[in-house]
Design the sequence.
């Protein structure tokens, strides 16, 4: 039976593009090594037509399908389940053509398997940008996965989430039919907006095989500031003020706590305190960028000067090396933390106006329940999105602590999130990791609506089962 | 039976808020007087709870529900059908509270019955804007309707369609349950994005009763240019160039043909040729705006000077009166055309890069089939959205011409649209007007997906039947 299926897959995709046994293993474990599963085969189709045939074959044989791109999911969305053997991984990496770049329409049509970094390059050639800001992972992740998880990253404040960067999609449906929704239109009010169903669905409603993406003009002017703030509340107020003063030119607003800085200085070479004389508890890195040749450093300085409630110190620069030195502090927090072992990680969002409340209230709750914890809080304050990681100071204590208390720590954090009407997964999705957890934080009506849509589009439940819903 | 229903509706919404007979009539005909229908009653609930009870009552009795806001639909979406008597209009106008304005989060939570103009006022008070640009209709239309039709207008180029301005929704589902999705989050990846199903669904999947809307900082600098271009192709290239030079600060780019200008000069007092010495065939009105105190007139002049392929003449101004004189030409085209009787109107979109092709190809096709037609082409070129109206020069000939040839004219126009991969309804929706027509221009798969979603959410088919799908 399995051998018949594999033979049929080989007929569709070519012998070399159906992997089994040891060759399939790398595709069955996620990039961080947290999730692992089994698959009858990994198939790498090269066209929507082949994907369609593979899906039809699987549907006929009631074999589950795990769509996969760069396999960089942080929630186990892109690997097969551990406890099911009737699964096939459909890896899209061979569908990596840029079908069309229309610089005048500010769009490009790309296949799901294009690496994000390849899209950066292709747009640079036509003096445009594709502003999905996931620079660290861009050489590995693929646009199909980015869209399936509605990826965020740095730049959401200015350009929106992945969802906001899409005009059209091509999707292979759970019964194998191909929906060609590759429209390149800024306006189209002709019925239900189906593309938004598939974006962020983590492959549970169909397989995105291609997309029309929005491009943007390339910024010419950049100014960056490092600002020491009294506390997160001052940062929240500062952001509101900066938006009112500088508008759309704000392209990043990231907050970093002292605990993050300490980790970075300890583990990452060539990093320095941003302010020589004083170790501040909280810093903000913010960036203005503009297509116009604007004096953004003056604008940013003016805006900072006009705001005196809780700004302790700041430096504004247009010097790229200086800006990169600051960004190095922000971008290496995760790596620095990894050097001290594992931690309990959260990717939460609240309304921007409530970020300071979230940080303050969660601190109180956690320190009361678990005295002596280290809280590493940082992230995309401009989007209300905080990465909030918790560990013991002594790295050796973490594995047993996490083993015993992860569930309770999550519950404490998520309850504050819920009280502030936030989200327990801001940008990483649900995958396997939070599929169960989300049922406590979404209304029964919403869960039921999601399930009824899943049943309608995928009545056999074969499309990435065990993820999301 | 009808009297029982009416009595029950009065118990829910109050006696004065259930209209029948002559009192109901104004709600049963659309604002332009093109669509008319019958309803057992018009009910005006004042809360989501009342809407829920009304919907439950109707669902139990298998009475169709027509959700209605300001009744300004251009496609007959907001009035009952002519050939069905078992219908109730649920008008949301009494649900007109602004529940919350959070200037720091740049959001407000508003009820569906808020007039768009009231939202402009409320945001001005907190030094923000809500950028859905439908100024002419704003005193009449309501935000629930704006969202249900995914309204466009001037400003889409910069801020997106209505859909892009929403963070959360409250919706009464076809079975009367209330889905509270009023999240005020910039990032939330916890499953299917349900709000995008209801936005643009024209009330066929549920009744939007409230929404969380994005606000934006108020622009401080504005510069406007009137540009005479050789032809639409030059305008397309100019737009691409301006975006690359001036970026996000471009907030409008509208094209106006000579036929439009002639109509406006003939019928609208106090209007002048924008260029004194020469009557150009095509003009563009474009606007830059910025929150930063930027020298936008210099930027715009520089960008225009750097572009020499087909720009015949231009004037740049920061003078508001001058800018308004130009905008008067654009904004009065529809009214001027009305003075010469009825016409065949189209609201189409193509990729921005193909707008010139659309205008050129449609002109050829139509003039060949119907020599001597007047073609009035204008609109939101920045979004690829052209309003394209067709009439006989002699107004008296129009009623018989339209009676006989509207269908064939539409077919000729839509076939060019389809060839250019465009949309037959860019911003007005489908309603009753294009419900049948769209089946020729969408794939069978897409129509079937839409219908299966309709069946899933509204199995009895009671929510605004005869519209969209």
Sequence:
């Amino acid at each position: 039976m399995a051998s018949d299926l594999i033979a049929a897959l080989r007929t569709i995709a070519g012998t070399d593009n159906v992997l089994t046994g040891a060759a399939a293993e790398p595709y069955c474990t996620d990039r961080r090594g947290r999730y692992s599963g089994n698959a009858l085969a990994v198939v790498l189709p090269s066209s929507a037509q082949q994907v369609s045939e593979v899906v039809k074959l699987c549907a006929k044989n009631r074999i589950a399908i795990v769509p996969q791109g760069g396999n960089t999911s942080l929630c186990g969305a892109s690997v097969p389940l551990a406890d099911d053997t009737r699964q096939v991984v459909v890896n899209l990496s061979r569908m990596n053509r840029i079908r069309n770049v229309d610089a005048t329409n500010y769009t490009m049509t790309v296949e799901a398997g294009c690496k994000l970094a390849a899209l950066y390059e292709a747009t640079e050639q036509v003096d445009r940008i594709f502003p999905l800001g996931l620079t660290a992972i861009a050489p590995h992740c693929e646009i199909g996965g980015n869209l399936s998880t509605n990826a965020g990253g740095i730049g959401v404040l200015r350009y929106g989430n992945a969802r906001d960067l899409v005009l059209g999609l091509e999707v292979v449906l759970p019964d194998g039919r191909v929906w060609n929704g590759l429209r390149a239109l800024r306006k189209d009010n002709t019925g239900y907006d189906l593309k938004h169903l598939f974006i962020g669905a983590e492959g549970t409603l169909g397989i995105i095989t291609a997309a029309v993406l929005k491009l943007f003009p390339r910024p010419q002017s950049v100014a960056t500031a490092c600002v020491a703030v009294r506390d997160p509340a001052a940062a929240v107020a500062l952001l509101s003020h900066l938006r009112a003063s500088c508008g759309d030119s704000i392209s990043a607003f990231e907050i970093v706590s002292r605990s993050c800085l300490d980790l970075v200085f300890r583990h990452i070479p060539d990093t320095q305190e941003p302010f020589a004389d004083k170790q501040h508890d909280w810093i903000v890195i913010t960036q203005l960028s503009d297509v116009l040749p604007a004096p953004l450093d003056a604008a940013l300085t003016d805006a900072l000067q006009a705001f005196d409630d809780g700004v302790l110190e700041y430096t504004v620069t247009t010097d790229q090396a200086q800006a990169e030195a600051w960004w190095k502090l922000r971008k290496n927090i995760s790596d620095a933390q990894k050097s001290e072992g594992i931690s309990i990680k959260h990717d939460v969002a609240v309304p921007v106006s409530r970020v300071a409340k979230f940080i303050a209230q969660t601190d109180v709750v956690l320190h009361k329940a678990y005295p002596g914890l280290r809280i590493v809080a940082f992230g995309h304050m401009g989007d209300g999105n905080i990465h909030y990681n918790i560990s013991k100071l002594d790295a050796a204590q973490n594995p047993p602590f996490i083993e015993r208390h992860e569930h309770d720590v999550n519950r404490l954090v998520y309850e504050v999130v819920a009280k502030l009407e936030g989200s327990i997964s801001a940008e990483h999705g649900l995958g396997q990791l939070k599929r169960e957890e989300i049922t406590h934080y979404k209304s029964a009506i919403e869960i039921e609506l999601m399930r009824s849509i899943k049943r309608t589009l995928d009545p056999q439940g074969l499309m990435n089962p065990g993820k999301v819903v």
Observations:
- The radius of gyration of chain A is 23 Å.
- Residues 345 and 389 of chain A are 4 Å apart (CA to CA).
